[in-house]
Amino acid sequence: MKRTIAFGGIVATAGLLAAGLAAPAQAADDVVGTPLANTGITAYEISAFWLAEGAANLIAATPYDVETKIVAKHISTGGPAADSKPGVVPAIGDEKKTAAKSKNVNLPKTTGKVFFSDGYKWVPITKNGRTYWWPQAINPHWCTATSIQAAYKNLVATAGSCVYDTDRNKSTTSSWVFVPGYYQGKTPWGIYVGKQAFTHYDFDTYEDGDRDYAFVTVYNGVKGLHDGSDVLGDYKEVSKEVYDNFPYEWRAKGYHCFQWNGKYYAYAFVDAGRLGDNVGGQGLAYNQKVGKPVFVFGYPSGSHPDGNYAYSGKTLKWSYGKTFAASASAIKAEELIGVKSSFTGEGALGSSWLVGYKNTRRLGYLNGVTIGVSDTDSNNRYDTSISPYFDGELFGVYSAAKNLWSGSIAVPSYK
Q: Residue 240 needs a FRET pair 20 to 30 A away by CA distance; which of 49, 183, 309, 412 works?
């Protein structure tokens, strides 16, 4: 999906207020909920798909590129109009604490990469004289995302374009997982399979850039017993019913399940626990005054228009600046915000914008997600990132996702 964007401004809102304000009303028809992996076996299969062969599919993934050339104009006055009162949701573990100040910039553990692909193909692998099969990803990609506050500590926020497949006009991207702290195949806190995705009706139906955001509930994380190898966990004896529920291709190829001496066996992952328990979760701020300073955290990759290769996408980066009002008719967006940033677009899609970021606790309030970058002064260097304005409509989508339980997939469940 290629995007050419021009900026413009409208009226600003009230400032950041304390938590506990009345939540804005939200019509249920405005929220779209879509299953990603709504059964244990599907989630189990997705986990094995990404972790097999030393996480080869994760390592092979490339940054998701939804824009290449953006024409922009910086408008510093005005801002989006609030549709309800300002409000905040505190971060996990920060519900009753006051803000702390620090001059250091400590990177948040909550940020990571989301991975997805266009499906897979079976590839034969020969080891120690034995040939077996594993699913190789077709066009694996990644974006940036962050863990956010939720009742069951199981929620991820990112750009809608990183979940809902507007590029190929499909419902959602395939085999969606979140990996906080990912680095070169290492998954320090495990991988978290997406269970259900939520976005605004206008983005799902009309690709409205003002609603280019998504919240995804995730299952408990899973790990292999031997990090960095193709050993995902111990084989466990299972019932024939459980074995029969594995994908036919797996049973036919002996992939992570097999029969021996009249018994049935399958890999059982190690349960890494809930996302928020492991890395925390950012708070949420909506209907905020435009012009507040924000930290942007993400995994930018690729080059500037002039060919300068600024970022590798391998490590988490940050930028800092004050937001300003923006619009983008090319993506049907009239209520965006921008911030000065040298992030390149590849990989930075879904980067978290945090206001009130506390360096000592590495927590703040999510107030934006990157949906594109821009070269505003036409010098062939990206200098601006843009995000939807977080308003009461966004809070309604968040509210639809924040109280849903996910559970564990370490031992496959088929109910």
A: 49
What does the block give as tokens for 259? 């029969």
pLDDT band per the 50, 70, 90 thresholds, residue 27: low
Q: Is the pLDDT of residue 251 over 70?
A: yes
Predicted confidence at residue 170, as pLDDT, reads 65
Query: Rounded to 5 degrees, what angle do the CA atoms 323, 327, 328 make?
Result: 130
Are 144 and 349 within 8 A, CB to CB?
yes
Report strand pairing: 31-35 vs 130-137.
Answer: unpaired
Task: Return the structure tokens found at 375.
Answer: 């070269």
User: 0.85 exceeded by the pTM?
Assistant: no
The confidence score (pLDDT) of residue 239 equals: 87
Token duo for residue 63: 């940054």
Q: How far are the Cα atoms of 54, 70, 150, 265 from residue 277, in angstroms, in the given order?
A: 25, 39, 11, 31
What letters, b where the CB count within 10 A reaches 16 and e where it falls short, cover 270-288?
bbbbbbbbbbbbbbbbbbb
Question: Using CA atoms, how far apart are residues 159 and 296, in angstroms rounded to an integer?
Answer: 14
Residue ranges per domain, the chain? 28-233+269-401
In a 13 Å sphere around the CA of 295, the CA atoms on its Cβ side amount to 23
Residue type at position 367: N
CA distances from 119 to 60, 69, 177 (A): 14, 28, 13
- End-to-end CA separation in angstroms for the chain: 37
SS3 content of the chain, % helix, strand, coil (to 5): 15, 35, 50
Burial class (CB in 10 A: 0-12, 13-18, 19+), 170: exposed
In the DSSP assignment, the letter for residue 191 is: B
The tokens describing 177, both together, are 């997982």
Beta-carbon contacts of 89 under 8 Å, excluding residues fewer than 6 positions away, are 19, 149, 283, 284, 285, 365, 398
State the Cα–Cα distance between residues 294 and 297, nearest whole angstrom.
10
* Mean pLDDT of the region 54-82: 67
